[in-house]
Design brief:
By secondary structure, the chain is mainly alpha-helical. It has one domain (3-127). 79% of the residues lie in helices and 0% in strands. It has helices spanning 3-31, 36-59, 69-98, 103-126, 131-136, 140-143.
């Protein structure tokens, strides 16, 4: 799959995830008024799990034979999760508390600000697969028959 096609799939998942995150943030903020950073953390974490499932089954589906789901989930959380969580919290603090933007507009800006970094990290590390097998072809080495000596 070429990078442009994967970028389009990544963004489709991202738009769905953004809708989920904004909905969760609005609901959580309504029930925990004044605790928008905590509400942001919960919304981001749930959205990360949602997005991972979609990326695993859709965006990087062609790499599933190369990497394990638990391994990819850990790498996804260490990379995309860290970028999303840290980026959202820092930007939400700046945009809501200091710039006085409405909560959901600030969150959209935070999500968009993190998206390019998340795609690059996801493609280059979280869902990368086995670099040795990619030189032969996508996941071919893992499924190639063993040579007898």
């Amino acid at each position: 799959m070429n990078t442009l096609e994967r970028w389009a799939k990544f963004n489709l998942v991202g738009v769905i995830g953004m809708g989920l995150q904004l909905t969760l943030l609005a609901l959580l903020n309504r029930n925990m008024a004044g605790h928008y950073l905590f509400a942001s953390c919960v919304a981001v974490e749930i959205t990360l799990l949602h997005n991972f499932a979609w990326h695993w089954h859709y965006t990087w589906r062609d790499r599933r034979g190369c990497v394990s789901s638990p391994g990819s989930l850990v790498r996804f959380h260490l990379s995309n999760g860290a970028v999303s969580m840290f980026g959202n919290l820092v930007l939400m603090q700046l945009l809501v508390h200091r710039a006085h933007l409405p909560l959901l507009i600030a969150n959209v800006l935070a999500i968009l600000s993190c998206s390019v970094a998340n795609f690059c990290i996801g493609d280059g590390w979280a869902f990368r697969g086995n670099p040795k097998s990619e030189s032969i072809g996508p996941c071919k080495a893992a499924s190639a028959p063993a040579r007898s000596t």
